[in-house]
Amino acid sequence: MHPVRSAFQAGRGYLAACTLGLPAAATRDAVRADLERWSAGRATAPDYSAALERARGHAATLLGTAAERIATGSQVSVFTGIAAASAPAGAEVLCVDGDFSSVVAPFLARGDLRVRHVPLDALADAISERTWLVSCSLVQSATGEVARMAEISAAARANGALLLVDTTQATGWMPTTGIDADLVVCHAYKWLGAPRGAAFAAFSDRAIAEFASHTTAGWYSGGDPWASCYGPELYLAEGARRFEVSPAWNAWAGAEAALGFAASLDLAGVRDYDLSLANAFRAAIGLEASDSAIVSWPDETGCDLAALTAAGIVASGRAGRARVAFHLWNDEEDVELAARALRGAAVASR
């Protein structure tokens, strides 16, 4: 059992960190306190802004960068859309075949870009001098595959390509502080256990200089949002904050606590713990060991997912595959519960 297991109210049989995640006690308490303040008429915009700034600092810690390089938002697709809006007509954008739509769809929606899709293990080799931007997830949502990010980053740099990396399925269970990319995007509602509606991104100098800020420009994209509320002037921050959107206050009340909790953890140790459970489960059902906390296998009929659900296990199905994930609230008993459910389903199907 992980030392912080007691920070979570639930967890037994919950194998869905990759789908929704669970809030730690500190996050739950922060959301409750926010609701009470709001209901009592004591919530204020400056207080929410202060919470957002503290959350920005935690996000910077999790991505290994400075707070001034972090922009906050509500969705990964909006940050991807900033990159898509900045691409020259006809530019080549390289994506992973089967990657999550939020890091693919904004480029396809342009209609005038050359979007190529390749297998994850071929991504680095597919980058060429014709590539304007590479867009990929660090950990694939459907399969749990982990990208060889050092190789991908090196190939992008060698060819002058921009690099966008989504860490939504990574930040929280593994360290994500050494990524050499121009735009690192993350939503905090899965492994980080924040309320949905809190996302953040880290921008490189090149991205700040080249990406189009008009797609998100508003009152919160100014250097001082409280002085940017009204026209006729355009107010844009100098750095990454120019890409900010007006925050969902209540989500960030919980996200501040969630990101602070995650930033306080030894994420290398969390990775080792989560992988030990995931690989124990893989061994129990006859799969090879992997470097991912997400375990996914073919389940076209949905029988395995149905068996897990019938056993009281919260799991998910994606792209014709069953999918489970192991995190801080899980232990060896969860491994056995899930493996036993699948063994029972296999016996019943004979």
Characterization of this structure:
- This protein is of the alpha/beta class and 350 residues long.
- The protein is 37% helix and 14% strand.
- The strands form two sheets. A seven-stranded mixed beta sheet has the order 1-7-6-5-4-2-3, with helices on both faces. A three-stranded antiparallel beta sheet has the order 8-10-9, covered by helices on one side.
- Helix 4 links the parallel strand 2 and strand 3 (114-118).
- The protein starts with 24 loop residues before the first helix and ends with a helix.
Topology:
Elements: H1 25-39, H2 45-63, E1 70-73, H3 76-86, E2 92-96, H4 105-110, E3 114-118, H5 123-126, E4 131-137, H6 149-158, E5 162-166, E6 183-187, E7 199-203, H7 205-210, H8 249-263, H9 267-284, E8 294-298, H10 303-310, E9 316-318, E10 321-325, H11 332-348
Parallel strand pairs: 2-3, 2-4, 4-5, 5-6
Antiparallel strand pairs: 1-7, 6-7, 8-10, 9-10
Helix pairs in contact: 1-8, 2-8, 9-11, 10-11
Please identify the structural class as seen in this structure.
alpha/beta
Poorly predicted regions are: none
The rounded distance between the terminal residues' Cα atoms is 35 Å
Report mean pLDDT, rounded to a whole number. 95
Labels describing this entry:
single chain; alpha/beta; 3-stranded antiparallel beta sheet; 10 strands; 7-stranded mixed beta sheet; 14% strand; 350 residues; 11 helices
Structure at a glance:
The chain has helices spanning 25-39, 45-63, 76-86, 105-110, 123-126, 149-158, 205-210, 249-263, 267-284, 303-310, 332-348; strands at residues 70-73, 92-96, 114-118, 131-137, 162-166, 183-187, 199-203, 294-298, 316-318, 321-325. With 350 residues, it is an alpha/beta fold. Strand 9 (316-318) and strand 10 (321-325) form a beta hairpin.
